[in-house]
Automatic annotation (TrEMBL):
Domain of life: Bacteria
A Gene Ontology biological process term: DNA-templated transcription
Assigned protein family: Belongs to the LysR transcriptional regulatory family.
Organism field: Limimaricola hongkongensis DSM 17492
Protein name, entry field: Transcriptional regulator, LysR family
Molecular function as annotated in GO: DNA-binding transcription factor activity; sequence-specific DNA binding
Residue ranges of domain HTH lysR-type in the record: 10-67
Annotated keywords: DNA-binding, Transcription, Transcription regulation
Record keyword RNA-binding present: no
PANTHER family for the chain: HTH-TYPE TRANSCRIPTIONAL REGULATOR (PTHR30537), TRANSCRIPTIONAL REGULATORY PROTEIN (PTHR30537:SF3)
Length: 308
């Protein structure tokens, strides 16, 4: 592989090490995925820089930041990595999906939707290794934190492809044994929701819909919020999460029902990957089906309580 910053790289393993450190921005962050210790990675990077006769990283206690020449090498290396992956797919047998795929997602989707969907896809493709990266923030695809991501709003920048997966509904919910409030202006139980200054997407800011000024019980995790509601308070919950907490019930449905959407975001270059395109189609279809199934289960339970 020729490098325009000066020098020639002949060993693909050097590129693999370089890309991992560049994406993790640290030796310790890259070490687990490469199954090497940070000291070994440091020596490998130093030898690579020596052979190329140029610094690829600025090292500091905060981590490894790419130099201008390092950024040029990363662009070339990423293209070479994608080309190798495509070549491997083209030469492989016509069979089920295989290899490792990592999906990034907000923790509501990651906890209540993706486990069932991924289990189903993997059962049909035994050679496939699926990883769910659950983060209370936007997944950084440009740094290859994941191969693709489910988001709650479409990104407005970057070389990405975006497709809408499905809408989903949210409702106000509390324990079934708590008194039902008379209206949104009569919410006597403590409000459960996101930590206001840690809301990473505008679609997750529900305070305006509630006319509330504060959140007495807050977390940056949807799963933690659900656990809080199982003990006390009232808050906005995904309808698809309610079947996992049968002691909760929706309230004030005539006053407050929210609709949001899930979007599937991928690297633009990955459109040429038949493997990732096949997986993305299966993932989107699975998420749509699972959201519909769980929301129908939530609706059935609500009707049963009313009729009972």
């Amino acid at each position: 592989m020729q490098y325009d910053g000066g020098g020639i790289i002949e060993n693909w393993d050097d590129i693999r090490v370089f890309l991992a450190v560049a994406r993790a921005e640290s030796l310790s962050g890259a070490a687990p995925g490469l199954r090497m210790d940070p000291a070994t990675l440091g020596r490998r990077i130093a030898r690579l820089e020596e052979r190329l006769g140029t610094a690829l990283f600025v090292k500091s206690p905060q981590g490894y930041a790419l130099t201008a020449r390092g950024e040029r090498l990363q662009a070339h290396a990423a293209r070479a990595e994608a080309a190798l992956a495509l070549a491997g797919e083209a030469g492989g047998p016509d069979r089920g999906l295989s290899g490792q795929i990592r999906i990034g997602a907000p923790d509501g989707c990651a906890n209540f939707i993706l486990p069932q969907v991924c289990a189903s896809i993997q059962a049909a493709n035994p050679d496939l290794e699926l990883q769910i990266l659950a983060l209370p923030r936007v997944v950084n695809l440009s740094k290859r934190e994941a191969d693709m991501a489910v988001t709650v709003s479409p990104p407005e920048a970057g070389r990405l492809t975006v497709q809408k997966i499905t809408d989903y509904r949210l409702s106000l919910a509390q324990r079934a044994d708590a008194p039902v409030p008379g209206g949104l202006s009569d919410l006597k139980r403590p409000l459960v929701g996101y930590i206001p200054d840690m809301i990473f997407d505008r679609e997750l800011d529900y305070l305006g819909a509630l006319g509330a000024k504060g959140v007495p019980l807050a977390s940056n995790s949807v799963s933690v919020q659900l656990q809080m509601l199982r003990h006390a308070g009232i808050g906005i919950v995904h309808d698809f999460a309610l079947p996992f907490a049968p002691e909760l019930r929706r309230v004030l449905e005539h006053e407050l029902r929210l609709t949001r959407a899930f979007w599937l975001v991928r690297h633009a270059a990955d459109r040429r990957s038949a493997r990732l395109t096949r997986f993305a189609a299966a993932l989107a279809a699975g998420v749509r089906a699972e959201v519909a199934r769980l929301e129908a289960e939530c609706l059935t339970a609500a009707r049963a309580r009313r009729d009972g």
